[in-house]
Design goal:
single chain, 372 residues, alpha/beta, nine-stranded mixed β-sheet, five-stranded antiparallel β-sheet, 14 strands, 22% strand, globular, Chitinase_insertion_sf
Length: 372
C-alpha cells in the first residue's frame, strides 16, 4: 500500500506520492481510468507498459460519515481492473476531482474531523485492496469553480488545514504501508489544461515550451529530476477567439469565456476525448484542425479556424514523441502520467507513442550504462 496526495495550483497541478519503489531503472507510466471512459486497450503489450492505474473518482464526502459506509461507490472495482494488468502494476483509487471539494472542506475543519476522514480512508483501502490513493482536492485555498462568489481569502485556512489532513492520513495509513526500505516520493506535474475559461489570450493547452517551463520551475526549486512525472492530456480543447492571424495566433485575444460576475461557463470553450463522438456542430471545423493544423516552433500542434474563429489545441502522436525525447529524456524525468487511459480509445495511438517513447528512453539508458 502507499498513499498519494494532490495539490492543484491555478493552471497546473502537482501530486506528491510516497510508494514502494519500482525497479530502480524503470520509468513510470501512470494512467487515470475514468468512469466516463472505462475502456482498456486489448493489446497486452500496451497494458503491460503501464506501471500504475488510478481509478477516478470516489467522492470526498464519503469518508466523513460516522459510522463509515457499508460500501464505497466506484464505477468499477480494484480487483476487476487488476486482472487486466501485470501483478506489478499498482492500482489506486482517486478521491475528489473537479467540483467535489465539499468533503475535503469538512474533513479539514479540526482534529476530530481529520482523524475520522483518515480512518475511513484507511478502511476503504483495506476493503477495496487498493495499492494506494490519489487525493485530488481542487483546490485547497481557493481558485475553485465558485471563486467569484466565495473569494479566495475566505479559504486561506484550507492551505494549512490541507497539510494537517495529509499528516493525519500518513500517520493513520502507516501500519498498512509495507516495511520496504527503498521508498520514493514522486511528483506528477499537471502540464495540460494550460488554457481554460479564465484565460484571455490564445495558447496551447499542453504546449511543449509551456510544459518545459512548468517542469523547470519545480526543478529550479530543488525537485530531483527522477521524482518528476510529466503530465499528458489525451483529449482535444477548443476556444472561441476574436479575429486572429494564422501567422500570429498565439497571444490572440479570446472571446469572453466566463461570466465576469459568477465565473460561470459561457459555452465558448470546451473539450472532448478521442473516445467521444465529435459533436455535429464541431465536425467540419475539427476535420480542418486534423488536416490543416500546424506544428509550431516548439513542436506543439494547433489550428486556428478562420471560418469560425475557433482555436484547436491537442497533442498529436508526433507531439507526444517529441515530449518523450525533448522533455522526459533530455530533462531526465522519472516518467509520465496521463488523463486518461480510456480517453485515448479506440485506437490508443497516443498511449502507444507514450509507451514506445518510454521504452526507447529505458533502452537508451541501459545501453549507455553498458558502455561504461
Amino acid at each position: 500500500m502507499f498513499w498519494k496526495s494532490a495539490i492543484q495550483l491555478w493552471l497546473m497541478c502537482f501530486r506528491v506520492s510516497v510508494m514502494a519503489a519500482a525497479t530502480p531503472d524503470s520509468l513510470r507510466c501512470i494512467m487515470y481510468l475514468t468512469g466516463q471512459h472505462n475502456v482498456l486497450p486489448e493489446s497486452l503489450e500496451l497494458r503491460d507498459g503501464i506501471t500504475h492505474v488510478i481509478l477516478a473518482f470516489m467522492r470526498s464526502e464519503t469518508f466523513n460519515l460516522d459510522p463509515p459506509p457499508a460500501d464505497y461507490p466506484l464505477f468499477t472495482s480494484v480487483e476487476e481492473v487488476r486482472q487486466y494488468f501485470q501483478s506489478t502494476t499498482k492500482i489506486l483509487v482517486a478521491i475528489g476531482g473537479w467540483g467535489n471539494s465539499v468533503g475535503f472542506e469538512e474533513a479539514a475543519q479540526d482534529a476530530p474531523s481529520r482523524r475520522r476522514w483518515a480512518r475511513n480512508v484507511k478502511r476503504m483501502v483495506e476493503t477495496t485492496r487498493a495499492d494506494g490513493i490519489d487525493i485530488d482536492w481542487e483546490y485547497p485555498g481557493g481558485n475553485r469553480d465558485d471563486y467569484r462568489i466565495i473569494p479566495n481569502d475566505q479559504r486561506e485556512w484550507e492551505i494549512d488545514a490541507y497539510h494537517l489532513l495529509l499528516k493525519e492520513l500518513r500517520e493513520t495509513l502507516a501500519d498498512t504501508v509495507p516495511k520496504i526500505v527503498d521508498q520514493v516520493d514522486f511528483i506528477n506535474i499537471m502540464t495540460y489544461d494550460l488554457i481554460n475559461r479564465r484565460d484571455k489570450v490564445v495558447k496551447h493547452h499542453s504546449g511543449i515550451a509551456d510544459t518545459k517551463a512548468a517542469v523547470q520551475r519545480y526543478l529550479d526549486r530543488g525537485l530531483p529530476r527522477s521524482m518528476a512525472n510529466l503530465g499528458l492530456g489525451y483529449y482535444v480543447k477548443w476556444v472561441m477567439t476574436e479575429k486572429c492571424s494564422k501567422e500570429n495566433v498565439l497571444g490572440c485575444p479570446t472571446q469572453l469565456l466566463e461570466d465576469p460576475e459568477t465565473g460561470g461557463d459561457l459555452g465558448r470553450t470546451a473539450a472532448f476525448s478521442w473516445h467521444d463522438t465529435v459533436p455535429d456542430e464541431l465536425g467540419e471545423s475539427f476535420s480542418r484542425a486534423l488536416s490543416d493544423g500546424q506544428y509550431f516552433d516548439d513542436g506543439s500542434y494547433g489550428y486556428w479556424d478562420e471560418h469560425e474563429h475557433r482555436w484547436w489545441t491537442f497533442d498529436t502522436v508526433e507531439a507526444i514523441e517529441e515530449k518523450m525525447t525533448e522533455l522526459v529524456g533530455s530533462m531526465g524525468l522519472g516518467g509520465v502520467f496521463a488523463w486518461g487511459l480510456g480517453e485515448d480509445a479506440p485506437a490508443f495511438t497516443r498511449l502507444a507513442a507514450t509507451i514506445q517513447g518510454l521504452h526507447a528512453l529505458h533502452n537508451s539508458e541501459n545501453a549507455g550504462k553498458d558502455e561504461l
